Amino acid sequence: MDTPIYLALDFPTWEESSAFIDSNGLQGIPVKVGMELFYREGPRVIEQLKENNHSIFLDLKLHDIPTTVNKAMKNLAKLGVDIVNVHALGGSEMIKAAKEGLIKGAVNKEVPKLLAVTLLTSMGESTLKQELHVNDTIESTVVRLAKLANDSGADGVVCSAHEANKIKISCGFDFLTVTPGIRLTNSANNDQKRIATPVFAKQNGADAIVIGRSITQAKQPIKAYQQALKEWGNVIK
Ligand code: C5P
């Protein structure tokens, strides 16, 4: 992860994504492609981004029976993306099956990194307790799911910056922590609950961050991206 800031390309079409990248001078930066864009454009969007030298985190958050996830991951690995993910709540068998699928489908033995989503950063403690009937705190639930992912062969987790440090302590320094829910100073929170700045994320053990609306909805996206890079770069771990 050379430049560990992934821009969330949360746009409905490739045309809008590429127009945003080009008009803001963001060619070649690491990007995250999520469901909105992938479900509209399919593998073509990955081919286009690869042609333009973007490192790609394909954020489809798979959660299905192990056999299906295994076969889906084999196909995703063939696309040559750098990072993919599953929900840790799918359990150990599903995470192991995902890893095996990635190994089978890897192009030139380059196996995409497998991350597990612990809890969505949009989820607050009341949802966890009242709707999912999980009476643990968010923090201990997240750390428990991270350990499960680590034991099942995932390379890391997607988590809130608030839990990255605890995950490193429990799972080891090499276990990756990628954190969305990032807001630059003066940005709106939108639907994210456990938000953090790039400085806080890095200080608290994040290896990489994902930023969407703080950049895509900024008045000057390139300035916002540069601010994020500067904030991240200025922190010495
Ligand atoms: O706009 P914002 O910076 O909130 O975008 C965050 C991005 O990270 C979105 O694409 C969202 O799907 C993704 N994400 C998240 N929480 C997770 C995993 C991914 O917000 N736990």
Question: How is the topology of this model organized?
Answer:
Blueprint: E1 5-8, H1 14-23, E2 31-33, H2 35-41, H3 43-51, E3 56-62, H4 66-78, E4 83-87, H5 92-105, E5 113-117, H6 125-131, H7 138-151, E6 156-158, H8 161-171, E7 176-179, H9 198-203, E8 208-211, H10 213-216, H11 221-233
Parallel strand pairs: 1-2, 1-8, 2-3, 3-4, 4-5, 5-6, 6-7, 7-8
Helix pairs in contact: 4-5, 7-8
The site of cytidine-5'-monophosphate (C5P) has 18 residues, from strand 8 and helix 10.
Strand order of the largest sheet: 1-2-3-4-5-6-7-8
CATH topology: TIM Barrel
Q: Provide the structure class.
A: alpha/beta
Order of helices and strands: EHEHHEHEHEHHEHEHEHH
Strand content: 5-15%
Q: What does this molecule look like?
A:
Helix 4 runs parallel beside helix 5 (92-105) and helix 7 crosses helix 8. The chain is an alpha/beta fold and 237 residues long. It has helices spanning 14-23, 35-41, 43-51, 66-78, 92-105, 125-131, 138-151, 161-171, 198-203, 213-216, 221-233, and strands spanning 5-8, 31-33, 56-62, 83-87, 113-117, 156-158, 176-179, 208-211. It is 46% helix and 15% strand. It has a single domain, classed as TIM Barrel. The model has no long low-confidence stretch (mean pLDDT 93). The protein contains 11 helices and 8 strands. Strands 1-2-3-4-5-6-7-8 form an 8-stranded parallel β-barrel, surrounded by 6 helices. Strand 3, helix 4 and strand 4 (83-87) form a beta-alpha-beta unit. Bound molecules: cytidine-5'-monophosphate. Cytidine-5'-monophosphate binds at residues 8, 10, 34, 59, 117, 120-121, 158, 180-182, 190, 192, 210-214.
